């Protein structure tokens, strides 16, 4: 069975600083996708960044980037120049498409607090 | 374009009752998935519907069911409610297309409280 582990329940950072959220996963599949979602207090899940396992290049979206280490099954999220609006719960998720369909498997989440 | 719409936003039900939640996906998205979010168990996959057929199901009892209509709108039903069913229920619509990266878009959820 696939699992996703986020080992940091809570993190805090000052505005303008850089923070890295950790995520490891376990799977025997070779074709899969990894995602980071952000859930602010408004509770809407917002896609931050996605990575396809067959792509070696790390995904980047503005201030957000990932460090995808396929052999180590690690998928960390780096947030540069942190802003107050980044305060939220962050979830790492895994998905492998197959004939049975698709389903996201989530980690337990990391609560990120950005302070001024 | 419009996002994923879930109704209602909040619900309070009594144990033993049943409840129906609704999800309207983004136009053109044929896959709709449902997730349960609780503080203890986190986010758990309930089921996925694609072209009116359930094609994937999580590990939940038969009291949880759903369906999808021809316009891709989906409903989720929970019968014989238990206190433990209190949760945020999230719906996600997606493009099941590798070239589009399997983009999932979530709604704002329905907060169900069972008393």
Question: Please, could you describe this protein's structure?
Answer:
Chain A is built from no helices and twelve strands. Chain A is an all-beta fold and 116 residues long. Chain B is an all-beta fold and 115 residues long. Chain B is built from no helices and eleven strands.
Q: State which percent range the strand residues of chain A make up.
A: over 45%
| Average pLDDT for all residues of chain A | 93
Number of β-strand runs of chain A = 12
Q: How far is it from the N-terminal to the C-terminal residue of chain B, by CA?
A: 37 Å
Order of secondary-structure elements of chain A: EEEEEEEEEEEE
Helix-strand makeup class of chain A? mainly beta
Amount of beta strand of chain B: over 45%
How many beta-strand elements of chain B?
Answer: 11
Number of helices of chain B: 0
Count of DSSP-assigned helices of chain A: 0
Sheet with most strands of chain A: 6 strands, mixed
Q: Average pLDDT value of chain B?
A: 92
In one word, what is the shape of chain B? globular
> What is the subunit organization of this protein?
heterodimer
Distance from N terminus to C terminus of chain A (CA atoms, Å) equals: 41 Å
Uncertain regions spanning at least 5 consecutive residues of chain A: none
Which descriptors would you attach to this protein?
heterodimer; A: six-stranded mixed beta sheet; four-stranded antiparallel beta sheet; B: 115 residues; mainly beta; seven-stranded mixed beta sheet
Short description:
The complex is a heterodimer of chains A (116) and B (115). By secondary structure, chain A is mainly β. Helix content of chain A is 0%, strand content 50%.
